[in-house]
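Field log, afternoon session.

UNIT: design team B
ACTIVITY: writing a sequence onto a fixed backbone
BACKBONE:
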């Protein structure tokens, strides 16, 4: 007992010395101190001595985790050793989008942005340069780097929250990272779209006439020319949401319309999504379908199995954008002027595709927020 008390007393005294590391004090320097051999004397024979590690070594092993990478006073390159930096840069410079998608926080658009950035600017040479990639800032970059150095295998029971109002159903986390979408609606002789940002602001909103639609025998080359002309002026976005109409198979009179819609839809999917998604399962599809009936239910436009016109709702959205402090969606002044007299009751269906494209974009963001609540 006397030896034990003396032993503990020496521990306390050692921890009180200025500039030294006690058992419960963090060492001032990140490197481990040298091993200093100490001995405990056997209380039975008082002759045998058992070597043990010094307290500085024990203390350093307990607190050997690196200092947090503070954005205010430390660069990303200063947070990691040269070997760690080589490992991180090797992954970021050589991994495919599907391989990057397996890293924490890199699912969805971030992995694609990394590949696009290094293709345009060359390989990453420093960790600090990674924050130039869109959607990657200091804090998220640290999480990515640590995930590369310490990969964690996901269990089979990890629950993925799907956005079930889209087809195919995709992980909702992919959609939440999108900066903007383009909502596309096909009509009998035109294609309309609404380009809407995540802050619920209309960036672009227009339609293009397609003179070869529903003409003659649905000549594929003529359809391709019309669709390609639309794609030339279509803005770029993280996701393209294409309206999928609900046409009853029992109504044979609508077969020509259904064939027309499916033809245009297939061309849009093929031209906007050139990647082989079967080989890149960790990359989200860029083109998605949204059911027309789902948008109708969201805005209470359904009358039985049919959907009423959304012109009245669009006029109200435009009015609210001018009068309310926080409207459901914001319109720039030039678009308000351009469409101020459109969507009137006497227009007899004119501008219906424009209305539907806008309502689909609004429903996309509002349903996405609702599913995450």
């Amino acid at each position: 007992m006397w030896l034990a008390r003396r032993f503990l007393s020496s521990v306390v005294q050692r921890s009180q010395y200025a500039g030294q590391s006690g058992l419960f004090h963090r060492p001032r320097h990140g490197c481990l101190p040298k091993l200093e051999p100490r001995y405990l004397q056997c209380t039975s024979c008082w002759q045998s001595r058992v070597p043990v590690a010094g307290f500085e070594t024990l203390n350093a092993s307990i607190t050997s985790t690196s200092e947090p990478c503070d954005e205010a006073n430390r660069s990303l390159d200063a947070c990691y050793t040269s070997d760690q930096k080589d490992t991180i840069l090797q992954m970021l410079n050589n991994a495919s989008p599907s391989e990057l998608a397996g890293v924490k926080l890199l699912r969805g658009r971030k992995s694609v942005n990394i590949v696009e950035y290094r293709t345009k600017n060359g390989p990453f040479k420093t960790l600090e340069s990674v924050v130039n990639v869109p959607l990657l800032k200091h804090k998220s970059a640290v999480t990515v780097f640590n995930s590369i150095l310490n990969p964690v295998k996901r269990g089979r029971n990890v629950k993925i929250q799907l956005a079930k109002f889209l087809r195919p159903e995709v992980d909702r986390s992919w959609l939440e990272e999108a900066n903007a979408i383009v909502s596309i609606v096909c009509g009998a002789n035109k294609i309309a779209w609404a380009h809407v940002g995540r802050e619920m602001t209309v960036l672009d909103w227009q339609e293009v006439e397609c003179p070869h639609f529903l003409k003659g025998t649905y000549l594929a080359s003529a359809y391709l020319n019309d669709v390609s002309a639309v794609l030339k002026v279509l803005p770029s976005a993280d996701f393209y949401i294409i309206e999928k109409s609900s046409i009853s198979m029992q109504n044979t009179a609508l077969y020509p319309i259904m064939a027309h819609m499916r033809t245009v839809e297939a061309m849009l999917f093929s031209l906007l999504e050139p990647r082989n998604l079967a080989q890149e399962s960790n990359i989200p599809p860029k083109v998605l379908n949204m059911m027309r009936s789902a948008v109708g239910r969201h805005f209470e436009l359904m009358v039985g199995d049919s959907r009423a016109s959304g012109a009245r709702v669009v006029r109200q959205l435009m009015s609210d954008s001018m009068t309310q402090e926080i409207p459901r969606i914001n319109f720039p002044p030039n678009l308000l002027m351009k469409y101020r007299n459109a969507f009137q009751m006497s227009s007899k269906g004119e501008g219906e595709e424009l209305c539907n494209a806008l309502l689909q974009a609004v429903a996309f963001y509002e349903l996405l927020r609702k599913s995450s609540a």
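LOG NOTE: Residues 172 and 282 are 13 Å apart (CA to CA).
NEXT ACTIVITY: expression trials, pending approval
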